[in-house]
Amino acid sequence: MIRSLLKYVACKNRKEADEIRKIIYTVNAIGLSECNTNACCRDFSLNIAFQMDKAGLSLHRSLPGKRFSIMDNEEYLVSLIHELCKFSQECAWVEFKQNNSEKREIGRYLSALSNSAMLCGKSSAYVVWGVQDQTHEIVGTTFDPFTQKVGNEELENWLLQRLSPKLYFRFQQVSIQKKRVVVLEIPAAAKHPTSFQNEEFIRVGSYRKKLKDLPEIERELWRALDQTPFEALSAIERISGDKVLDLLDYPNYFDLLQLPLPDGRQAIISALEKDEIISIDDAGLYAITNLGAILFAKNLDQFQALKGKAVRVIQYDGENKIQHFARRAGVKGMLLVLRD
Predict the structure, then answer these.
(1) Mode of pairing for the β-strands spanning 278-280 and 286-289
(2) What's the predicted TM-score (pTM) here?
(3) Cis bond upstream, residue 262 (ω within 30)
(4) How far is CA 18 from the centre of its chain?
(5) CA–CA separation, 314 and 25 (whole Å)
(6) DSSP code, position 55
(7) Angle between helices 215-227 and 103-119 (to 10 degrees)
């Protein structure tokens, strides 16, 4: 899809197409990535995020995947759990449990499922307590991650301090059929394999293995980590199809490709998904990719991780950059700005 758009713009103005290409592939280097040089600052940010979750406040950023979630509620969790239970058996990125809450086991699953999610091309992996692992029947759980402690330290923080690189994982709970279910959502590994207590794990079928014992899979994981492009990551997640169409200038998208506007909402959504402007998640909701937002957002300020990254035009006085007399900051996606 991106090649088609660049080819179209290049037909009109090759210089503009080159600029778009540079912007897309270097945008992560101009302020969107988390600071990796100040571990103390990063840990502090993660702990603040946990406290916000507990207080019921919405998170504006999720770390380190730089994704913004607009829907973190009971309806989403119920839908997610029902979708996961449809699998005929446990897969490499989903684990069902009833009450097993041993802290080191949870830490090893954080590593294994995070790495397996990356290998499987998933943005997240899940551990679900309260579901029978053979029948996938919802049976409920007594496990409560929000009150469990390791010594005097909360379980979440204890796990966080032993993960490398740091992950923003989330424990969430919901009642289904009057039975308590707990979901641990784990981001896929990014840049480096996820380790727990300096050991890296991976799922092979329904078994957890040490990554170092499987050199072929380890090489495959590193290849996947090296090949995951910034534009394929999510700029905003867990939104409805109607919200997708509200945030993106989709008529301009089809116009740029010289295609007729599809007939009906679902046909439009399907076309955007096919061209990787959006993706569908495990609960049947949608995410807008960084590529989709950067190119076709009506307002980039509505995407927290991309906020302030719209095109800015500065007109200078004379041939140097000492003085300028005009400055204009936009909010639209970059291809929309070029069309204006």
Answers:
(1) antiparallel
(2) 0.57
(3) no
(4) 28
(5) 22
(6) T
(7) 60
Given a contact cutoff of 8 angstroms between Cβ atoms, the answer to whether 181 and 141 are in contact is yes
> What would the 3-class secondary structure string for 275-304 be?
CCCEEECCCCCEEEEHHHHHHHECCHHHCH
Which helix (H) or strand (E) element contains residue 238?
strand 234-239
Q: Which helix (H) or strand (E) element contains residue 263?
A: none
Q: Kindly give, in sequence order, each residue whose CB lies less than 8 Å from that of residue 198, ignoring residues fewer than 6 positions away.
A: 164
Every domain of the chain and the residues it spans: 2-30+232-339, 73-228
Do the bridges between strand 153-154 and strand 149-150 make them parallel or antiparallel, or are there none, so unpaired? Answer: antiparallel
Torsion of Cα atoms, 109 then 110 then 116 then 119, to 10°: -170
Provide the token pair at 51.
């406290």
pLDDT tens-digit profile of 60-83? 333 333 343 434 468 888 988 998
Write the CATH number of the domain with boundaries 73-228.
3.30.950
User: 297: closest CA among 255, 246, 254?
Assistant: 246
